[in-house]
Write a structure and sequence with these properties.
- The termini are far apart.
- The protein folds into two domains: 2-85, RNA polymerase sigma factor, region 2, helix turn helix motif (Rna Polymerase Sigma Factor, Chain: A), CATH 1.10.1740.10; 112-174, Orthogonal Bundle (Arc Repressor Mutant, subunit A), CATH 1.10.10.10.
- α6 (125-136) packs across α8.
- By secondary structure, it is an all-alpha fold.
- The protein is 68% helix and 0% strand.
- The longest helix is centred in the middle third of the chain and has 25 residues, at 63-87.
Length: 178
C-alpha cells in the first residue's frame, strides 16, 4: 500500500488483486449463504471504498485491520440494503399523496455536478475528507473515523460545517436557494 500511495501503478494493481482474492475467501467463509454473485458485488464495493480512501491509510499502522474495518462496514451496509429491499412492496402506480399537483412533484436533484465537485474541492481538507467519507462514500461515523484518523466528534463538526459551506457556495453560484 505504501508503494501504491507513492504512485507505483504495478504495486497498486497487485495490491488490489491480492485484496480481492483475500476478500472473496473471507466473505465466503463468513457468509456461506451468500451467492457467488453477491460476494463478488460486495468485493467490488469494498475495492471501490479502498480506492476512494487509499490516501487516508497510515503506512505506520497495520494494513489488514484497516482493510477489514472497511470490509466489515461495507458488508453491514449491504445487509441493511438487503433488509430494506426485502421489505419493499412492488406497485404499478403510486397513489397521490394530496390532490394538489404541486404536493406530488418529485424534487429535482442538484443540476450541476461540476459545480458541486468544484465546491467540494474548495473545502478545507478536514471538511472535504468528512464530506467525501460520510456523504459520498456513505461510510458510518465509526468507519470514517477509523479511515481518516479523525474523532467521531470532529467528523460530525466537519460534516456539518462542510454541508453549510456547500449550501452557501452552491446557493451563491446558482443565485437561488436550491
Amino acid at each position: 500500500m505504501r508503494l501504491a500511495q507513492d504512485g507505483d501503478r504495478f504495486a497498486y494493481r497487485k495490491l488490489l488483486s491480492e485484496i480481492a482474492s483475500l476478500l472473496r475467501q473471507s466473505l465466503a467463509r463468513r457468509h456461506p449463504f451468500l451467492p457467488e454473485a453477491d460476494i463478488e458485488d460486495l468485493v467490488q464495493d469494498i475495492l471501490l471504498s479502498v480506492h476512494a480512501v487509499r490516501a487516508t491509510y497510515d503506512c505506520r499502522l497495520p494494513f489488514l485491520p484497516w482493510l477489514m474495518a472497511i470490509a466489515h462496514n461495507r458488508a453491514a451496509d449491504a445487509a441493511r440494503r438487503y433488509g430494506r429491499r426485502a421489505k419493499e412492496i412492488a406497485v404499478e402506480d403510486y397513489p397521490e399523496t394530496l390532490g394538489d399537483e404541486q404536493a406530488n412533484r418529485v424534487a429535482e436533484g442538484y443540476g450541476d455536478p461540476e459545480a458541486l465537485h468544484k465546491a467540494v474541492d474548495a473545502l478545507p481538507k478536514g471538511q472535504r475528507t468528512a464530506i467525501e467519507l460520510m456523504k459520498l462514500e456513505e461510510m458510518s461515523l465509526k468507519e470514517a473515523a477509523a479511515v481518516s484518523g479523525m474523532s467521531i466528534g470532529a467528523l460530525k463538526v466537519a460534516t456539518h460545517r462542510a454541508t453549510r459551506a456547500l449550501r452557501l457556495a452552491l446557493k451563491t453560484r446558482n443565485g437561488s436557494g436550491h
